[in-house]
Structures are given as C-alpha cells and as structure tokens.
From TrEMBL, chains A, B:
It holds the Pfam family Voltage_CLC. GO terms for cellular component: chloride channel complex; plant-type vacuole membrane. It is a multi-pass membrane protein. Residues 1-29 are annotated as: Disordered. This is Chloride channel protein. It comes from Zea mays (Maize). The keyword ATP-binding does not apply. Residues 19-29 have a biased composition (Low complexity). One of its GO terms (molecular function) is voltage-gated chloride channel activity. InterPro entries: CBS_dom (IPR000644), CBS_dom_sf (IPR046342), Cl-channel/antiporter (IPR051280), Cl-channel_core (IPR014743), Cl_channel_pln (IPR002251), ClC (IPR001807). Residues 730-790 form the CBS domain.
C-alpha cells in the first residue's frame, strides 16, 4: 500500500500523459482553423459557458477528500484510458489488406502460444510461492516448536515475534521503496484495468517481482492474509509482460508481432492471466475461468472462454505435476497437498428441514458479518491511508506494528485456554508434534492438546484444513472457536491495509470457517450436520457476503473439496448471503475500486442520466485539426493540451464545406511528426508517402511509458511552418452520437464497445461538423453531479 | 421436423409481420414530405440505383435453394427481429419518471420470482419426462424380455418393433400436425432467438406441449436420440410463457408488470430457461449456466450469471428432491438415479506418458469423426427436407421407416454375436434379468450373456452407463464395440432429421463412449487406463468434435461423473478434439442455424466488410414521416410496406430546417391510430394528450402474434384527413452511424448493442437529415455478397 496525497489523481491524468486535466480542455483555443464550443441541447449558451467554467470547482466540491483517496501511489501515477476501438485509418487498412494467410495463421498460433505460456509461467510462480511459504513458515514454526518442547517459552516467543517482524519489515520495505503498486490484493486494480483504466506501473515488471516476493514474505510472516489475491495480480502482470508483443530493443520486430501491440489483444491475454492466477492459487481451473468472468472482466467474448480455460488448465496441470514430484520429498518441508487442497469427501448428502433452517440462519448471519467486514475494511483503509501517506518509513512501521500484534495474538491467546486431554480413540494422532496436524501440543503436558494453538500456531492453510476436518466433533470447543473467530476477523480487517501484498480470500475463509464451525457446534443439538460441513458453509457465506461472487466461489469451493454433493447447500448459502449483504453495501473489490477513485464504468448507467443528453456534458472549447494541418499548430496543441484524440475536419479546398473527416490519436501524430512527413504546401500526400518512410509497426501501440514524447521532438522553425497530411492516420470511422442522444444511451454505447473517444455531432445543420468529444470521465457520476447537482442527487 | 418450401423465409418477413421483403423497401415512394434515397459513398447515384434494383435478384442467386432451406415450417412462419434498444420516447420518459420505489422493488422481486419459477417448472418437466420415459420404455423392454425368456423370439420381435413404430408414429403425428416447430433439437432455434431472431411459434405453448410429449414418445420409441436438447427448448418455452408479463384477457394488468413486456427482460428469462433445461437434463447446475453462456446466448451480463445460476440450482434441487422421493419405489419402474447420473468415482489419478499419447490419439480421432458427423448430418438433413416438404404424411412415414430400421438393428444385431460365458467372479450379477444391468441374458442360455444386447437392448442412458462402467475390462469385446459404434453413429445421423423432438447429446455421447471404449480395449496393451475411462474420454472427444463446446461439456461431464480428478484429461481431450474439428467445419448447431437460413449475427463481422461503408448497403427509397403527419399517409404506409421502424423528420414549421427527430415503431403508430389521437390541424398535441387517453401499458410489446394489425383499424375518410403528432412516440435517441462508417464497425455496434434499426446520417451538409436505415439483413454476408460479388468472395 502506498497511500499518497493524490486525491484528484484521475482528474490529473485521465486521458493524457500530459498535464491538462480534461480531455475537452479548459485551455485557451488554439490556432486551429475549425474549433467549436459545444452547445448544450435546449439550454442557452450562457448557461453552458457558466457550467464549463464552474465545472472544476464543482467537481472538486462534489468529490470530497476521503471519497477520492488514491491509495496506490496515485500522485505519481497518471491514469490512462485504454482504447478497444479499431483505428480504421489508411495505415491500418493498407496493413490489413497486405496481411498474408501466413501472417494471420502466425497471429492465431501466437495468440494461443502466449495464452498457454501464461498458464505455464503462472503455474510455476504458483508452485514457487507455495513451496517458499511452506519452507519459510514451516522452518519458523519448527524452530519455535523445538524451543516450546524444551519449555523455553520466552525464547520461543521472542524467536516467533522476531521472525515475523523481520519478514514483515522486508515485505513492507520492498513494497514501500520498490513498487508501491504491489501492496494490497491487486484484484481491484486488475478489475479496473480490464474495465479500461491503465494505472501506471500496476502491471510493471517491478510490481510483478515485488508482488511475488512480498506475498511469500507476508504469508510467511504469519499475517492473516492470503496469497490468492496477489496470485491474480501476478498472473495479470505475467500476461501483460508477455503481451508487450515484440521489442525493437531486442530485435523482436517480426511483422506479424505488431498485430499484438494493441489494447484489445493485451486485454484478452490479461484476462487469461487473471484466471490462471486463481486457478493456480486454488488449483481450480473451472473456478478460475468463472472468477475472471464474474468478478474481474468487464467485457467477455465466447472465444475468450475457450482460451482462458486452456490457460487455467495448463496452469493447474503444471502445478499438479510439480506437486506430484514434490510428494517424493524433493521440496524440503513441502510434502503435502495435491490437486485438491482440502479432501473432504464422504459427507452425507441428505439433510432434514431443521438442517436447512440452520444453514439458512448461518447464511443470513454470514451475509450480515460480510457486509460489516466490507464497511470496516473501508474505514480501516481510510485510517491507514493517513499514516501511509506520510512516507515509506511510516508504512514499514505500521506493517511491523500489525505484525507484532498478530504475533502476540497467535502466540499469546492459546495460553488462555486450558489444555484438553486427548480422546483415547485418537491416541495415535493426538497430540501431534511437528509441522501440521489437528492436535497441537503447544505448552500442554503429554497426552493433552491445546485446541486454540491447533488453529493459531499454524499456517493459514492448515488452520482452514483443521476447521474443515470432519469426524471428531468435539475437537474445538465453543470458547476456542469464538476466540479464534473474533481474533481472525479483527486481524483480517487490520492487516488488509498494510504495505504488503495481501489477499482477502484467506482471512474471509478463516473467519467464515471458524464462524460456521462455531454455529455448527452451537446448533449441534438441532442439526445433524457435521461441524466440518458447517465450517465449509460458513466460509461460503462469508465469501458471498464480502466478495458477492456466487458461481465462481461455488465452483472454487467444489474444486477445493471435490464433492459435488455439497453443491445445493453451498449455492443456497451463497445466494442468501449475497442477497442479505447487497442490502447494505457493495462488494469489497468494487468498494476499493471506488475508494481509489479509479474511473470505473459501471454496466448500468445511473438512471438519472436519462434526463441529460450527450451535449449536456461535453465542454468547450473543442480542439480540432484540419485534415492538412500546419506542423507548428499540431506541435503546439500537443504541448499545451493533454488530449489524446482530436477530431479532424475536412475543409476547403479538400471539401466544399467543412465536414468530419475522422479522429486522430496523439500517438499517431507523434509518429508522423518524428518521421517528418511534411510538405511545404497545403496538399494531400496520401498513405503511399507515409508507407515509403514508415512501417505499419511504427504505429503500433508502445508498452506503457514507452511511446514517443512530444518533448522528444526536435523540429526546426522551418519545419514548424510546413504542413502535414493527417488523412493517412485519421480514423475514418469513429463512433459518433448526435448531441441530443440521451446520456444514458450514449453511456451504453461507450461502455458496450469499450471506447476511449466518442464524437458528438450537431443535430442541426449549418454548425461545425463536430461539437464535442465524450470520454470516460464525462460519464462519471461525480462529474455529472458536479455539473448538475439537482439532476443527479447523491 | 417440418421441412417446407419456405426457402426465402427470412427474406419474406425479416422485419415485418407484413409482406414486403426488405426493411428499406423497394415499394414506390409515398406521399411523405421528406424522403431520401441513400447515396452510396464514393459511388455515383446511378450505380446505387442499379444495385438497389438488382438486389433481390442477386440475393436469390447468391443463396441457392439448398443453402437457404428452412426446415422448421418456415413458409408459414414470418421471422421477426427482436429489439433490445430502449425506446426513449416521451411515453417511456414520463412512465419512467413516474415509477415509484415500490414499483421498482416489485419489478426486481418479480424478476427473481419468475427466474426461480422457471427453475421449478423446468425441474418438474425434467422429472416428468424422465419418469415417463423410464416407465414407457421399461414396460416395453420388460414385456419383450418376458417373451424372450419364454423363447418366443418372433413374438418378442413383433412386439418390440410394433411398440416402437406406434410410439414413433404418435410422436411424428404430433410434430407434423400440431407443432412443426417442435421437431429437432431446438437448440439452434433458441440460439437464434437469443441472437435476436424470433421465428414465429418457436416458443409457443403448442410447441412446448408437443416438445415434451414428443420427446417422451421419441425416446421411449428406442430411437438413437436424447431428451437433452429438447429440454433446452422446453426450458426456453416455459420461460417465454412466464415472461409474457401480464395479460389483459385475464385481468393481469398491474402497472408494474408492463415493465416486463419488452424483448430485453424476455431474453434474460429465456436465457435462464435454456440453462435450466440443461441443468435438469444432466442434473448439472454449473454445467447449465456454462452451456447457456458458451453455446446459446449472444449477449451476457454479469448480473445474469447469478440469476441463471439460481434458476439452474432450483431446477436441479427440485429434480433431486423428486428423485429422492422416487427412490422409495413410488414411481413405477423409475427407481434408479440420483443427482449424479453416472457415479464413476475411484478412478486412478495418475497416468504415464504412454497413457497421454493414447488419449491424444483418441482426441484427434474423436475430432475427425465429430467433424465428419457434422458434415454428414448436414447432408442427411438436406436429403430429408426434400421428403418432409411433401407433407405431414410423408413426415410420419419417414419417421416410422427410421423406427423400423432402428428396431431391426437393436433387436437383430445381437443375434449375430456369440454368447459369452459369465465370468465366475461375477456370478451374482451375471446374467442380469429384468430392466437394467450390464449382462443382458437375451437369447443366451443361463450362465451366459449377450454383450451386444447389453448395449442395444436397453435405454440409451443405461447403455451409456454400461459403456462407462469400470472394473471388469473384458466385458465388451472388440467386435461388439465396433458393431455398436458403427450402428449408433449411423443411426444417430439418420435419426436427427425425422419429425420428432430429438437431441444430439445422447447419440454423440453413445458413439463417443463406444468409440472410446473400443480404443481403450485396443490400446489396452500400451495404456494402463481403464476402458471405462476411455469411454468417458471418447464421449468428451466426440462432444468436442461435434458441438465445439469446451468448458460447458467439461463441467457437465464432471457433474455427471462426480470426479474432479478427471478434469485435466477431459480438458486435454476437449481442446484437441475441438481444434482438430474446427479445421474442417463449424459446430453442429451453428451449421443448422445457417442451414435454416436464420439471419444469425456473428460476433465477428466478415473481415471484407471493412472495405465497405454503411452507405454502401442501405437501399432506397427511404420512407420517413414528418413529426406531425397526416393520418392517411401513415395508414397507407403501414399497409403498403412491411417496415417496422420509420425515421421521423422534424420539418417546418416545427424546426427551421429539416432535422432528424428520431425513430418511430410500427407498433406504437398502431396504438396511436387505434386510440384516434388526431387533430384537424397540423399542430403538436404533446405527450399529455396521449396520456389522457392511453396508459403506458398500451405501448408495451405484445406477445408474439398478439399486437394490433393495420387491417384491424377502421378509420373514416374524415379521420384519414386529420393529423397525428408523432413526437410523443418518437424514440428521440436512436443509435446512428455516419454513412462513411465502415460496415464492419457499424456491424460491431449493431451486434454489440442488440439493435433492430440503426439510422444512417449523411456526412455532408445540405442533404436530408437521414439517408437510410440499417437492419439485421443488411449485415448478412449473403446479402452483401449479392450486392458486391467481388468484394466479398465466397
């Protein structure tokens, strides 16, 4: 976590790598021949002008400090929108027509090779982090356990707390100094990326490295956090790196690789990566696909289903093969596990009405506690961000503090419970000594076990396995479970905001399982269901209550437990818990996306936007280019605005009257400028001239932060007075709406097709051919609320 | 199946319930003040006119008789496009603003209630058809078996063949006379519906009834067909009936129910219904959701995932509860079964490289045979349609013929194999006498069994269970399996086109399982895998090869077998089989959709359409209305054209110059005409006048075939000379494209938002404000190919 004072972060750079806040700028009009102010439909111009001037003020007022807090180092990260529209300019058309069958085949094959490669790499990473955690945490627990056996309790405590603090500090230092974007779960950021918001460095190589190492250190440090969320982020980072699509630097510039250098193919691969992350974390290939579909992506195509599934399948198989190899004892302390994490088969498949009533009660309570968890997480994150904003050192101190609190709880609380004598029928298994097992000896005399230590003094995975375990009902008493539940719920809340990669799955499953087992133990007299089954259902209820996922959580739990007969009960619990929790607040990931101020486009436009039209939200003055434009004007515009797309107007002598030629992108203008394809007279040069000097590859989208910058250009005065023909790089088919299109319907179009720019056309004749441009931020409720406080009440 | 001579069916009625073939008509221009011919971009007008005139001819030429064959009674069924656009006219806006919180809550609750109700009903229907089939077929087999035991073989054969023929004839008669649309699988039609094509009577109550009864009769008749495909159709029909949303006739006209009377909510519910059908057929709730997502729907929203899942969960639970009840012996011959169809656990989870190689070989062969199956199904359907076109009697004769052939094969072929002595270790189970069991006695002496009869002389479900059964490897010999595979593969091909409701899942699974077991038996020396496992993988390979589904088939097979450890192998097989088969042809359902000539919109526009622009495909003359129009003109236009949407032009005195006001729908015009909201002068009356006389409910979309017809209107000469104000019913925000938008991108917009009409705007000024309308058929490759044979080669 790297909370910083960037509360207007996405305002500062939504559509640009530059400095001007808005796409439709408030900067002074330029020397462009045609430039039009938007006229708001059925409103007089004076009013519109006032609105445009007031906007930044109102906007700031509408978005108070806390609601716009950007937690992941946002003040240093400009946010850029992604563009899923095909830029149909002459370059693209000529390029597309020249594609041979071989190139198309290569492209198809490479798409698959990349997807499968993502699967392999994510599987390997998942294996590495599993093995590293098991070895580091296992070694730590073994050493402490040895000291405990020698009755050197203080030394054991010091060792335990020290190890944890050092591991936590290392993780926090990595996050604070190397890659602040690696803190937290990463799922909200990936969700935002797949919605079209590219927060700088969120998928960078440094983030990937820190995410993997930090996650291993964080989990080993005994925090109540998981490595599942970070695996999703890791998977996306891996996919993003592989999707860069060739590199000039390393000579990887085959012609056909350029087809990958676009946001659309990158998005597809990152979807595969996110799914593979879940698949590798839970060893659940189908669950991974459904997770990506239900929670992460904003757009989905049927073709993607198949590719995503292959990726998750490969990731799972790689992991499975390596774990099978490890079963031979080749991997240090890592010996257990398999494709199924918790093998809980042989449950009963029949249940009575009382059982069902108990399960419904559990689901309702799970939903309520889940909603409360979301509410509290929000508060904790806001409080932490004040600390974290102060600097890297503060982050580390906060992390170490939480680590110490966690260590004290996990080591200290078991002392409060009395030792339980081992049941005679389990003499062979109780008490267990060493790494895992249900019946931890801890400080107890031989023949007895400490129930609370069996849960606390363990890795989180083992604690969950113990909670899910069936058979011996009275293993954990009511007080044990109550203490554990309260502690884990609180620690889960306190841990999420610290500066280490931290997933929410494990804390939620832990709390849910302990709560479920508690409920099962309490309801033992009325319900005949196993407390282990209650623990599983409790976990489902909490997952439904916090994350609001249904199908994917259901399938993940099924894949974890390998028992399809549990399906009806799990579904029932998930549906009830989600419904109950939805009455109070949003899912935890959506909530974090909002809190970070990322301009996330919702599926449904706010209903009140039906009262507004597209023309109401575009603001002037609009910057346009003539189809053959003076170089100096272009350079000056690019320098003085942060806009990314400019309408191109065809005007005399190229057309009898001004008409819309299309839309040109900043990046393409820069390529043309750098290529110096200028003429001294105002004439069309055509695409042939461009192709003579530049390859289609030159126009492909560069990796983030790698494109040409306007300040890199070094043009002479003479060149500045020349003309450049924009026709070859103008997208001739931009999506357009008429100014009196209702804003809600314009939003459906914008969101549905994944656009970055949308031209607004005049309704009446005799006006400029384009009256404005709509971008992502024009659809944000905060923005509209600032403009029209009465139309869109909070 | 009801093939008829309707080969231009969708040409004849794509956009209308009237008679004119094209939305943009070839009829003579009307007395409408503003009417514009489309001008094709960068082409001269003469050429465009020629194109427009030639079109119908070219179109017919481009679509030869066979490729446009409409198999499901298409000559009597006009096809109508569905409209998922929100019609934002004054009526809607006023209506929407008047919605209270209570109404919105009622709407939300009802949406859920309907979805869950669909689940309950589909679960009940699934149970009914299971129990009916088991009892009818079981009784038939028991009677025949009794005669066999008495060595009265000829009588047994006569009884068997007679029962089958009678059942087949009954099913065929129902299909031929009552509801021709009920023949076949129904999945292609549901797929087309969810793509926006409403073929008349495809979801009608009569179709539902015949589908259920016909499916029971067909399966009981011993055909090689399944009840799974029909279950999907049944589920959709049930959902469609429930989604009608209130009825005036029965007084169900609460205000809030009208919000359901639109294509969008109906589409969502039908998606739920289709998923519930799969869930009930295979008792696979997750598989049902994925099936709907992967194969059936064209649009998907995250919100739908949850609702669909609830529906499938309810359907599965209802079925499960009833089957549990039946286990007590309350349901006649239906005693077996449970949530898991084939309980095949306890397979080995490890496999060697040789095993993998054998599996890959199986998958490749499965893919090849699957592609061959699709090719042959196409040929058989084309051949059958010639017979079926001749009339209902021919349909019945064809069905009975196939029934007799099937009976001869299933009864006759077992005589060709020698009896096998029962293995001594299975003395208790072999030979089995009665309904089910692996070791059918048939004509063999006691202590021996007929391997082929165990497969043939059984219901299809039992045959699959026998093929999947593990443990005793040498149960079925190579010759047995080879005979069975060849017969089933051929009969499956021959059966699909007959006039009974027939699913493709069972024939494909049967062929695949027998082929897989054959391969497993042959490869027994090199691979240590169980032949039952090979049978399962063979079924997966065939399903992947014919239906080209991956994730859903995988999950369905997992839910059927309840063994997640098989996942990696099943995935591998599916991916290979699909990839291999995709090299040859399309999936079987897509192929049938194409063959029926349904105007299905593909996700990807044909790449060559990038060379065309929107203006190239619109044809003139365009029929438009003035915003306040003479009643006579409107009535005459509605009578003489079949168009469904008309651009409305705001012209003097209501605007200084003609401008686009919006789009008006035929159905709304008819409501206004019937309400007689006319004025004697050409003035705006406004929405208030409309609301004084009509309720918003009057404008809701009527159930199919129920709306007002233009011929129902009875207007006097005086009324015909009055004026009507179209403003209140004009959709002010129609989606528009500029005429030089590339056709490919226009198609993305059209498909992405699920539109029915799209206005084409002029690029240059000084022309009419709208130059054409694009509808579904303008994006059909056949149509474009007819216009531009060189641009879009076959």
């Amino acid at each position: 976590m790297a909370p910083t004072a960037g509360r207007e972060s996405w305002l500062d750079g939504t559509e640009s790598s530059g400095t001007t806040p808005l796409e439709t700028p408030t900067a002074t009009p330029l020397a462009t021949p045609i430039s039009a102010r938007s006229v708001r439909w059925e409103k007089d111009v004076e009013d519109a002008a006032a609105g445009a001037l007031q906007r930044p003020l109102l906007y700031k007022r509408g978005t108070n400090t806390t609601s716009q807090m950007a937690i992941v180092g946002a003040n240093t990260c400009p946010i850029e929108s992604l563009d899923y529209e095909i830029v149909e300019n002459d370059v693209y058309n000529q390029d597309w027509r020249s594609r041979g069958k071989l190139q198309i085949f290569q492209y198809q094959v490479l798409k698959w090779v990349l997807a499968l490669l993502v699967g392999v790499v994510v599987g390997l990473v998942g294996f590495f982090s599993n093995i590293a955690v098991e070895n580091i945490a296992g070694f730590k627990l073994l050493l402490t356990g040895d000291l405990m056996l020698q009755n050197r309790y203080l030394a054991a405590f010091e060792l335990y707390i020290g190890c944890n603090a050092v591991l936590a500090a290392a993780a926090a230092a990595l996050c604070a100094y190397v890659a602040p974007a690696a803190a937290g779960s990463g799922i909200p950021e990936v969700k935002a990326y797949l919605n079209g918001i590219d927060a700088h460095s969120i998928l960078a190589p440094s983030t990937l490295l820190v995410k993997i190492l930090g996650s291993v250190l964080g989990v080993s440090a005994g925090f109540v956090l998981g490595k599942e969320g970070p695996m999703v982020h890791t998977g996306s980072c891996v996919a993003s790196l592989l999707a860069q699509g060739g590199s000039r630097k390393y000579g990887l510039t085959w012609n056909w690789i350029r087809y990958f250098k676009n946001d659309l193919d990158r998005r597809d691969l990152i979807t595969c990566g996110a799914a593979a992350g879940v698949a590798a974390a839970f060893r659940a290939p189908v669950g991974g696909v459904l997770f990506a579909l239900e929670e992460v992506t904003s757009w989905w195509r049927s073709a993607l289903l198949w590719r995503t599934f292959s990726t998750t399948a490969v990731a799972t198989m790689v992991l499975h093969a390596l774990i099978t190899y490890c079963r031979g004892g080749h991997c240090g302390l890592f010996g257990k596990g398999g494709l199924i994490m918790f093998d809980l088969s042989s449950r009963q498949a029949t249940y009575t009405a009382t059982d069902l009533a108990a399960v419904v009660l559990l689901a309702v309570l799970g939903g309520l506690l889940g909603a409360l968890f979301n509410f509290l997480v929000d508060r904790v994150l806001r409080a932490y961000s004040i600390v974290n904003e102060k600097g890297a050192c503060y982050k580390i101190v906060l992390t170490v503090t939480i680590s110490v609190i966690t260590s004290c709880c996990t080591f200290g609380l078991p002392w409060l419970t009395a030792c339980t004598p081992c049941p005679p029928e389990l003499a062979s298994k109780c008490p267990t000594i060493g790494r895992s097992g249900n019946f931890k000896n801890f400080q107890c005399p031989p023949g007895q076990y400490n129930a609370l230590a069996s849960l606390f003094f363990n890795t989180n995975d083992d604690a969950i396995r113990n909670l899910f375990s069936a058979g011996y009902d009275r293993e954990f008493g009511v007080s044990t479970l109550l203490t554990f539940f309260t502690t884990v719920y609180t620690l889960g809340l306190l841990t999420y905001g610290v500066a280490v990669p931290s997933g929410l799955f494990i804390p939620v499953i832990l709390s849910g399982a302990s709560f479920g087992r508690l409920a099962g133990t309490l309801l033992g007299s009325v319900s005949g269901l196993d407390p282990g089954l209650f623990a599983l259902l409790g976990a489902a209820a909490f997952l439904g209550g916090t994350m609001r996922m249904t199908v994917s959580v259901c399938v993940i739990l099924l894949e974890l437990t390998n028992d399809l007969l549990l399906l009806p009960l799990i579904m029932l619990v998930l549906l009830i818990a989600k419904t109950v929790a939805d009455c109070f607040n949003k899912g935890v990931y959506e909530q974090i996306v909002r809190m970070k101020g990322l301009p996330y486009l919702e599926v449904h436009a706010e209903p009140c936007t039906r009262s507004l039209v597209a023309g109401d939200v575009v603001s002037g003055p609009l910057v346009t280019f003539s189809s053959v434009e003076r170089v100096g004007t272009v350079v000056h515009t690019l320098r003085s605005t942060g806009h990314n797309g400019f309408p191109v107007i065809e005007d005399p002598p190229f057309a009898p009257a001004p008409e819309l030629c299309g839309l040109v992108l900043r990046s393409h203008l820069l390529v043309l400028l750098q290529g110096r394809i200028f003429t001294s007279d105002r004439v069309k040069t055509g695409a042939a001239e461009v192709f003579r000097r530049l390859a289609p590859f030159d126009f492909a989208k560069a990796g983030s932060g790698k494109g040409i910058k306007v300040d890199d250009l070094d043009l002479t005065e003479e060149e500045m007075d020349m003309y450049m023909d924009l026709h070859p790089i103008t997208n001739r088919s931009p999506y357009t709406v008429v100014e009196n299109m209702s804003l809600a319907k314009a939003a459906v179009l914008f969101r549905g097709l994944g656009l970055r720019h949308m031209c607004v056309l005049p309704r009446t004749q005799g006006r400029p051919p384009v009256v404005g441009i709509l971008t992502r931020h024009d659809f944000m409720p905060q923005y509209i609320r600032g403009l029209y406080p009465n139309v869109l009440p909070r």
